[in-house]
Amino acid sequence: MRPDIPAPPAAVGVRLDPWSGAPMPEAAAGTGAFFRKVTGLHRWLSLSGPSATGGAANAAANLGFLFLVLSGIWLWLPPVMRWSQVKLRLLFRRGLPTAQARDFNWHHVFGAWALVPLFVLALSGVVISYPWASSLVYLAAGETPPQGRGPGGTPLPASCCLLRGRWPIWCGS
Fold it and tell me: Does some domain include residue 137?
């Protein structure tokens, strides 16, 4: 930076009313502190700020959740793929003989319809949490992952490079 040009303020921004476009007053200090704590708890399992241990636990939980969603798909699939079998698991059924049968049906129906949003949430959590997953998204789209941009730009781990002979693009060679 040039010494004759003053540095910009750390945080410049104005909140605007979405309907009128008029400037809105700043939130109270207590509200800002509350949301900083909630953000820290959500990202790092910490109320005091970034934590490597909390971030790693959060990332592992994202990976575990993705595994649960994928294994749920496998368990949900009927043994024989016929429309009559799939329909039994996709739609609510009336007149089931017991409450247990009704609960079983509801579990399958809610699980089937929640599958897509849960898969998207879990997959995006893994991509945000792990640089190798972010790199795989770039490679799947046919682009080169960005380099030198912090944690998101790190190359794939050595374990992925064991596949160099079969998929050389994975390791950038």
Answer: yes
pTM score: 0.63
Cβ density class 78-96: b for 16+ within 10 Å, e for less: eeeeeeeeeeebeeeeeee
The reply to whether 106 falls in a domain is yes
- pLDDT tens-digit profile of 65-85? 999 999 988 888 878 888 888
Q: Is residue 87 a part of any domain in this protein?
A: yes
Question: What is the amino acid identity at position 130?
Answer: Y
Name which of 166, 164, 57, 14 is nearest 155 in CA terms: 164
Alpha helices for the chain (secondary structure H): 29-44, 52-76, 83-90, 99-129, 131-140
Per residue in 116-137, pLDDT (tens digit) is 999 999 999 999 999 999 999 9
Name the nearest CA neighbour of 68 among 134, 121, 14: 121
